[in-house]
Amino acid sequence: MQYSHSKLIINLKNIKNNLNIIKKFSKNTICPVIKANAYGLGDVEIAKFLIKNKCKDFWVANISEALKINKNISNINIYVANGLNKNEEKIFFQNKFIPVLNTYEQFQKWTNYLIQKKLPNKLVIQVDTGMCRSGMQHEDILKVYNERSIIRKFKEVIILTHLASADEKKSQYNVVQKNRFLKIQSMFNYPNCKFSLAASGGIFLGKDYHFDMVRPGIALYGGKLFFNKQLKNVVSLVSPIIQINRLKKGETAGYNQSYKAKRNIVTATIPLGYADGVKIKISNIGYVFYKDIKLPMIGRISMDLMIVDVTKVKNKIKIGDHLEVFGKNLNLDGFARVSQTSPYDIITSVSERCERVYLN
C-alpha cells in the first residue's frame, strides 16, 4: 500500500531536539500540548514519546481527547482546556482529569464536588488577560478571590492565562498581558499557588514570561521556527506518483480548465487533495519536490488528487516515486506561507488517510 497513499513522516529525533531547546529556556514544568491529535501527528504516539523524555503533564482541548489518551496511557496529568461543562463532574473525577476552570460557575461546581469527596488536590483556573476567548474575566476573578479560603484548601492551584500575540516579539500587547497577570499573581500570592503564562511563543519572549509552567505546542512539532534558530522541522508530507500523462500545448488540466499548457509537458498525478489538508487556494501556485527539484502544481486541487508538471524530470521519474509536498526542501512554515495560512492550519488538516510514519 505504500504506493497508493500519502504519508506524513514525523521525525521524533527533531521533536526531542525541540523539547531540549525549550528545556534550556525554561527550567520549570513543561506541559506539552497534545490537543487536536497532537496537532495531527498522533496524540498517543507523541505522548508516549514525550513520556520517555520525562514529561508527565499534558494539555488537551476537550474530554474526548482526554479519554482517548487515558485509554492508552496511565499515570500522567491531563489538563482539559475547555473546562468543566454540564454534568461532567463524575467523568472528570473518575478519570482523574484536571478541568481548566474558565468561569466562576465552573469553579463553584468543581470545588464543591471535590470538597464533598474530601479530595481537594489540584485546581486549575484560567484568567482572561486580553484574549477574550476563554478564562475568567475581572468580575469572576474577584469572586474567586473573595473565596480564597477555598483556594487555600487545595494542595496545588495553577492559575494561567494565554497570550494573544506571542508570535510577535515586539508586540506591546505581550507586556500588557504580562503586567495584568502579575497583578493577578499578587492577589493569589499563596504557597500553594503556581502560575502559567507562556505557550510556544511566550517561552521565547524571555524568563519573565515563564512563571512556573510553560505549555509548548507548535514549537515542539516544527512550526514557527523563527521562535529560535535551533528549532528543527519535524514533519514531511510525501505522496507517490500513481499516473503519468502527457499534455499537449493548448490542452487543459483539472477542473474548470484553470490550467492551460503553453507547451507540450509531462504531468504526474498524486493521491493528495483538499480532503487531505492541501488548500484549494494553492492551485496553480504551489509546488512539490522530486528530490531537490522544484515542480509546479498545475490545475485545480481536487478532493483526492493533485496534478504536477514533471517535465523537468520526465526522463528520471516513474510511477511509485514519491514527491515531497513539504519537509526537507520546504518546511511547514514555508508551505503555510505559500498556502496563505498558518502552520497550525496545515498540520492539523492533514487527513487520517495519510499514514503517520515515525522516524528515529
What does this structure look like?
This protein is an alpha/beta fold. It has an eight-stranded parallel beta sheet. Helix 11 (332-338) crosses helix 12. The mean pLDDT is 97. It contains twelve helices and 19 strands. Helix 5 links the parallel strand 4 and strand 5 (98-101). The longest helix is centred in the middle third of the chain and has 16 residues, at 172-187. The chain folds into two domains: 12-226, Alanine racemase (TIM Barrel), CATH 3.20.20; 235-359, Lyase, Ornithine Decarboxylase, Chain A, domain 1 (Beta Barrel), CATH 2.40.37.10. The protein starts with 6 loop residues before the first strand and ends with a strand.
CATH topology of the largest domain: TIM Barrel
Proportion in β-strands: 15-25%
**Strand segment count:** 19
What Rg is obtained from the alpha carbons, in whole angstroms? Answer: 24 Å
Give the tally of structural domains.
2
Helix content: 25-40%
Instruction: Specify the structural class.
Output: alpha/beta
> N-to-C terminal Cα separation, in Å?
22 Å
Please count the helical segments: 12
Major sheet characteristics? 8 strands, parallel
Broad CATH class of the largest domain? Alpha Beta
Mean pLDDT: 97
Main-sheet strand order equals 2-9-8-7-6-5-4-3
Task: Show unreliable segments.
Answer: none
CATH architecture of the largest domain: Alpha-Beta Barrel
Outline type = elongated
What's the CATH H-level homologous superfamily of the largest domain?
Alanine racemase
